[in-house]
Amino acid sequence: MNARPKKSFGQHFLHDGRYIDRIVSAIRPRAEDFVVEIGPGEGALTLPLLAAARRLTAIELDTDLIPGLQARAASAGELHIVHADVLKVDFTAMAHSHGVSRLRIAGNLPYYISSPILFHCVEHAAAIQDMHFMLQKEVVDRMAAEPGSKTYGRLSVMLQLACRVEPLFEVPPEAFRPPPKVDSAVVRLLPLAPEELHDARPEHVYSVVKAAFGQRRKTLSNALAQLLDADAIRRADVDPRARAETLAPADFVRLAKVYGDR
Fold first, then answer.
1. How far is CA 69 from the centre of its chain?
2. CATH architecture of 202-261
């Protein structure tokens, strides 16, 4: 019996087998992988992932979905369901407690809290091998946007400083029950290797990026006035007359370093 989708959880259950197969093929789970699924719902992705990986941890907030999910997965493999808000799940501790170096994370994310979930996962990127997420297409466009584009912003910079972002394919509304009012897309996130990561203080990067895009139509000298003056911006080899949307992620790192040295 199909579950009734709940608006309060932003539930849209994927049901089209063609797209389920494409997502599983993109992930390519193996028996040695420790896979974590965020928001398994009715198990459309859970069951084929479990069949390939043989063990899977699913994080589900909706208690009404858990009994049905357990019943469907009973003969598919070793399924462990964590009843929790994903924003409160410590992925680093999860990896350590299961004796694995890195997790593989997947999920059809609730669109209304997708950005907080992405930022939460990035905080644990050192314990994550890769991430495959279904998201609103507009969000995926923003994640992968390049400097100078209309969709380039805070989400683009913060994710690209931590991961390689690879949009994979689009998924139409009719692939879900009920159909959302927006197009969706699947994206792959590959956390950067330690030697590829910047060495600025994360809180300084966050402050600079947030201030810069908080008033994105203003020049940096105006948008960052509470953090850095024009001379300080120049010391970062950045033009104070530029706007945030024209800067590469590395430019924000240099600004954050100057901010930290002030």
1. 24
2. Orthogonal Bundle (1.10)
